[in-house]
Every structure is written in C-alpha cells, then in structure tokens.
Specification:
The chain has eight helices and 20 strands. The protein is about 20% helix and about 35% strand.
Length: about 350
Amino acid sequence: MDNSFIDIVGVSKSFGGVKAVDDISLSVHQGEFFSLLGPSGCGKTTLLRILGGLETPGSGRVMIDGQDITDMPAHLRPTNMVFQNYAIFPHLNVEQNVAYGLRQQKLSRDEQIEKVSAALAMVKLEGFEKRGADEMSGGQKQRVALARALIKRPKVLLLDEPLGALDKKLREEMQIELRMLQQQVGITFVFVTHDQEEALTLSDRVAVMGEGRILQMDSPRQIYERPKSREVADFIGQMNLLSGVVESVGDKVTVKTQTLGDVCVENNDQDVAVGDAVTLAIRPENLKLRSASAPGAVRVTLAASAFWGHTTYYRVVVTGAEGESLDVAQQDYSGSERAGDEAWLGFDPGDLLLLKS
C-alpha cells in the first residue's frame, strides 16, 4: 500500500548550465524523519529549497499530501524551514522571535502567549520568553529557530544542516533531542546533512546523493551494511575498498584480489561476468587482528595504531601486497601494537561486499 506523503517526481534544476538536481524522483512517508545526505555540491540543499518553494524546478512536480505545490509560493506551502545560521532576529527577544511566525494569524494576545509557551516547552526553553537573542548560546538559538518553525504546526519541517554550527558535544546532544522532538510532534521532517553519522543516527530513511542524483535510498542499517555502489560505500563511514577481478560466477562469485587472495563472496545484486574488474568492500570492525595463524588469515605488518576509548584503530599492510593497506577497528587484540610488528588478519568472507568498480 502506497503511504507516500511527499512525492517528488522527475525534478531537475540547473544553474548556469550545471545540473544541480538531475531528474530526481522520491517519496517520503507521513511522520517520517527523512534525510538527504551527501557532500557539498551534490544537490541536496537545492532539492530541499525546491520542496520549500525557495527555488523553482526546471522540470518535474512536487506534491504534498496529494496537493500539487510545484508552482505554489513559499509562504502558502504547508512547510516551514530551519536554517543552519538560525536566522534569529537579534533585536527581538525569544518570545518575539517565536511569535514572528504567527504574524499573519489574527490572534489575541492571550492566544499568542499560549502558543509561544507551548512551542518553547517543546524545545525545553520554558522561562526564556524575555531573554534577548544576543544572550542565547548557539544551542539555545537553534531551539528558538525550531520553536518558531513548529509553532504553526506545518505538515512538513525542512531542516538545512541545522546542527552544523554547533560543537561536537552539543551537536550530539541536539541530535537526540531533535529525534525525540520529531517523534513527539509527529511532523514529517526532511533533513539535509553532509554528516554520515548524523544521518544514520536520526533518520528512518536516508537518500544518499551525488552529482545531483540519488545513489541509494534505504534505511540507515541497509545504507551502512549493504551499500549498493562504490560511491556510497566510500562515503558512508570508514570502509576498506579492495580491487579485484571476477574469476567465476555461480551461486557465489569468486574474486581474485592482491590483498586477500582468492575469496568467494555473495553476489550482492551485482550484474558481473568473468573478467570484470570489481571492488570488494569491508568495514574495519569486520577485520580481526590475531597473534596466531588461523584458517583464511593473512599475514600483515602493523603500520600505525590509535587508541580511542573502547576501540583501537590499526593501519596494517598485507605481506606480499606492499602498498595495499587496510584499516582495522578492534577492542580486544592482545598482541603487540608497535609499528613494524607482524600479526595475522582474519575475516569472514560473508562480510565482504561485492561492488562494481
């Protein structure tokens, strides 16, 4: 059953002959936290601005809740937007900033105060009504921006890298609060970010973008564990990418690599033939350093290590494949950690992903 709430159909947008958005179609469900993820210049913000009516598509249609809003002015759309720079009015206090979104509604003073109080309670800023904008921290300003955007209860809230200006600790705290807020209000959120961890943490689904197109759209777990292309695998988190050549194709695919030798892997829905150049991808946490040999393990030399709390990260070079290094993330390696020492590297072939090069 189709439960799409936002439908973007064949949307394209060019600037000076350069296609920022290239024939994108996607659907977002009602009440979903949906993220557009990708590097700078991939078209994610342009697509968000098209959805909000701040840009006009060159072609295609935009629908929200069954209504075609492609040519609808921004102020009439059932959307509101939160920007990275907050867009807080410095000459207004918190109450006045939040109430600004109500200016077109003919409300009594008591009704306005009631709505502002409810919006500030949602973002945990009760009692800050008379605080000046210049007296607020970055995190508090972002909360004010959220309250102002939510006070009119739009059908869709658009967020353009809203946490990008915050420091790491505050950003992580705000991620949790933003997700809880979205679940509380039940409004559809469309969120733009270049931060992979942020998208995976917050989202119900993620669309990974590159050069104006959607490379993969899936749940955070599928995006992380089963990327469908080298571009997605390389962009999402840390990933070891190994070049290889297909030697045989059957229920499984045998790939010859310089780094790990001949390995037998799942097809991963890739259309490959004998002789094709392919990429094998494996996460650092799926590689295991051992102090003794084990079936299928390869000999490696430690090049560097970095302790990071519960996990230590290693860079290793495979014996006989000089120039080919791998990253390993491990919690319990009991061998030597000095650069130049040798060890054994184990892996489960089931953790290797086959991708087209």
